[in-house]
Design brief:
Blueprint (H helix, E strand, L loop, with lengths): L17 H30 L12 H14 L3 H5 L9 H32 L6 H22 L3 H4 L1
Length: 158
């Protein structure tokens, strides 16, 4: 059973050359996801402006997610592999540490948004839309980070 998809290939689309537009498509999709995440939270903040409905401290998850987005995408894949980055602060090791800290911030924000959703909204029996907005904001920023970081690499697209 192992390796039963080894010889499977997706059908090639002859009408569009995805190789040349790979970076553009990944950037647009990531930008739309990032924008949608912030738009959802801004909508929740406007609709539920009272601090009893949406605590203002819950916005820090989105801020940390955004900072992590920029941290992760500030390091290129060539810097992590060591192809183009040998000088500077710790060289390749410094780039990997920076990337690791960015991913830990991103995962921490995503986990904190789930904790806020279930701990502050679902278990309390109050309207859950603000908690869902916080969770979806962080989830969309997380997916936009992954698409922007790994959707632009040549190894994944062939």
């Amino acid at each position: 059973m192992a390796g039963f998809l080894d010889n499977f290939r997706w059908p090639e689309c002859e009408c569009v050359d995805w190789g040349e537009k790979r970076n553009t498509i990944a950037s647009v999709i990531a930008g739309v996801l990032f924008f949608t995440g912030w738009w959802i939270l801004i909508d929740a903040a406007v609709v539920h402006s009272d601090s009893k409905e949406l605590n203002h401290a819950f916005h820090t998850c989105g801020v940390f997610s955004t900072v992590a987005f920029f941290m992760i995408n500030a390091v290129s894949n060539a810097q992590v592999r060591g192809d183009s980055y040998s000088d500077g602060c710790l060289g390749r090791t410094g780039a990997r540490i920076w990337l690791f800290i960015g991913f830990m911030m991103m995962f921490g924000s995503l986990i904190a948004s789930m904790w806020i959703l279930f701990g502050a909204y679902v278990s309390q029996g109050i309207p859950v839309y603000p908690g869902l907005a916080i969770f979806f904001q962080n989830a969309l920023i997380f997916f936009s980070t992954l698409i922007y970081k790994f959707g632009r690499t040549e190894e994944l697209w062939g």
